[in-house]
Amino acid sequence: GLLAARPARPRRAQPSLLHPGAGTRRPMLRSRVRTLVRAGGRASATGRVALRQPRQQRGQYRQWDSTAHGQASLPAGRCFLGTSADGDADAPQAATAAKPGLLQRALYPFTREASVAPEGFNRWLVVPGSFLVQLSIGSVYAWSIFNEPLTRLQGVIAPASGDWALSSVVPIFSACAVTLGICTFTLGKWAERVGPRAVAATAALCWSSGLLVTGVGCMTHTLPLLYAGYGALGGAGWALGYISPVSNLIKWFPDRRGLASGMALTAFGGGAVIATPLNEWLMRKNFVPPQLVGTVGEPGCPAVFTDEAGRRVVELAGEVKEVVVAGASEVGKFSAELVEQGVYLVGTGDSGAAGAFMTLSAGYLVTMLFGSLLNRVPPANYVPAGAAGAATAPGPAAAAGGAAAAASAAAPVAAEAIVPPQPKAWLGPSLQPSERSLDADSALRTRQFYLLWAACMGSAVAGVTVISSAKTIMSDCFATSLPAIVTGGFAASYVAALSAANMAGRLGWASASDVLGRKNAYFALAAGAPLCLSVPLLTHWVSDAPSAAPLVLFFGATWVVVSFYGGVFSVLPAYIADLFGQRNVGAIHGRMLTAWSGAALTGPPLLGWLRGRSYTQALEDLAAKVDPAAFSDRFGAPLERLHDLAAAKTVTIARLLELAPPGTPDPTPTLYDTTMYSMAGILAAAALANAAISNVPPDVLDRLKAWTPPALEPNKPAEQDTGRQPVARDS
């Protein structure tokens, strides 16, 4: 009743666009806003204008001149609404622009508009920024350095029963590559739209946060965090950092597409050259040896026995605790000053992996953000000096005569119309670079896209498989036969050498494809099949007659295979440009990189599964040669519990060899035979897919409404060529 008796308060006058300071109803204001939004605004030299009602001055509007405040005008349609500051004859009194907030000012340097290069900009200055981003995400190829430490996070010296198996750790790399494919497929158009700076900055945030989450997962021994951190967030950073420079450098170097893509990806392939020793050094700095309980057989060492789960345990202060027994094979991986043979308590040390991941997170964040700011996009209708046809080209109205023809004749050729050098005729048939361009959606409707996808995926399987487990493969195949040569440091150097092969292959094969042609270059990369077939011969050789010769040949064969892998992806952007045109390379390349995910999802898991089968078979063969009494005395359990003890990491091939008769060959070098045979078969299938690739027929281009450069359309008026992307969804 009291509320009903109160007199109604008069409505406070609200300003309007038509009558600032006068009373009006809010619906009229909202209606006017909708009108302005639909009409859009026009850019002006002084910046955009927008609705703003300053709190301190109600009923009044003011204009903020971005140029007067020393800041470039913000892009149209992004942050502000309204008409141009210059005014319109039919427009109402100009509503003035709101001054951008702190967040908008901070993000503006990463926008495409802020990264447009001025006229006369040296295109070679774009390369260093791309290199910094690519070097950072290229450290993904050093993942095999972490494989072995991640399998002993609890045992530290040797794997404990609760530690992850190698088959659980290797697929993290595959998960990272799967995320790469998903992100490049879905975000390719967005990357083309926002520009390389924003893409690289987003990649920096994803990559660094992924490494941070991975470090937390190592500290808490939570495997899902490793998949979420390195596999999901890290994969997103890998994807965005990878695609950010490729399309941009091809636009800067339309006359040398192969060289451009090679430069964009060379640093990526060589990222592990720096990351491998860096990762090793960080893990050594963060390594903490576990608590030494004693030495087996010496006074004071508690009795070690095997529990029902197959674990090695001791009794300390009335409590049963798990331990690992480190022998010569386990201790040899570490410095003699840090570790000695003995019994170590599980869960008391630190392998150093967690600290390494967290340190790398901070370092890569700074490096990639700095590199992103060095990226530039070329101005509209950019043509490099010295390119074929760059000086003059007949314009579309040349035949009409007069001033229009003269002006058109002097017009520069669009970058999309520049045709790269053709391969020599004696090199065999190759593809003719397409002068017309398809968008990403239309490319998916051609058979050439799927043939190229299959060729790329199959050609990459062998390389990605070797890279994912390089250090483990080297140690398994040669450490036992050549212990004086193949040490932990040698295996790490092998990973760095493979990264150098990846880098050399990316630059060398991309440049060679400008001469050979893209299709012929992919045919040459199929030579990895016989090299994979040679690996089992070399590992059997070193097992039967240990010498350095098979090691050298193995090193060379795998080096070449990985260089082919680098060539597959450095030639790919130029291959796409030849097939589908240059205009939408970034978006199509993003979708084509799902082939990379397919290779990573096929190769490393296949290696883990085949190696696991071979390992189990080798254990059973060795156990059949061991005295059951000696087995029971050594492991505290009967021979019938072999599989339980192997699952608990109590029984290994190295420990069984100590009980086997003298002269028994070590089966470890043969664990990868079936993997290499499978890789050779996949490479052969990829060569067949490449052989079936041909140019997109003209009738298909017409049906899919391929974009044609204005310079190639003689009937198109010159004034209609605005330089804008006609296909809005890929612009």
Content-based structural category: mainly alpha
Mean pLDDT: 77
Reported for the largest beta sheet, the result is:
5 strands, antiparallel
Strand content: under 5%
Uncertain runs are: 1-5, 13-96, 389-417, 424-429, 716-731
**Globular, elongated, flat, extended or rod-shaped: what is the shape?**
globular
Output the number of helix runs: 28
Strands side by side in the biggest sheet? 1-5-4-3-2
Separation, N- and C-terminal Cα atoms:
63 Å
Count of individual beta strands: 5
* Quaternary organisation: single chain
Q: In percent, how helical is the residue content? A: 40-55%
Can you describe what's shown?
This protein has helices at 2-5, 26-39, 102-107, 127-137, 144-150, 166-169, 171-194, 196-220, 223-252, 257-269, 271-286, 328-331, 353-373, 402-409, 440-443, 447-468, 470-479, 488-516, 518-525, 528-544, 548-580, 585-592, 594-623, 628-635, 642-647, 653-659, 673-691, 698-703, and strands at 292-294, 305-306, 312-316, 319-326, 342-345. It is mainly alpha-helical and 731 residues long. A 5-stranded antiparallel beta sheet has the order 1-5-4-3-2. A hairpin with a 2-residue loop joins β3 and β4. The radius of gyration is 32 Å and the shape is globular.
How would you concisely characterize the structure shown here?
It contains 28 helices and five strands. Residues 1-5, 13-96, 389-417, 424-429 and 716-731 have low confidence and may be disordered. It is mainly alpha-helical.
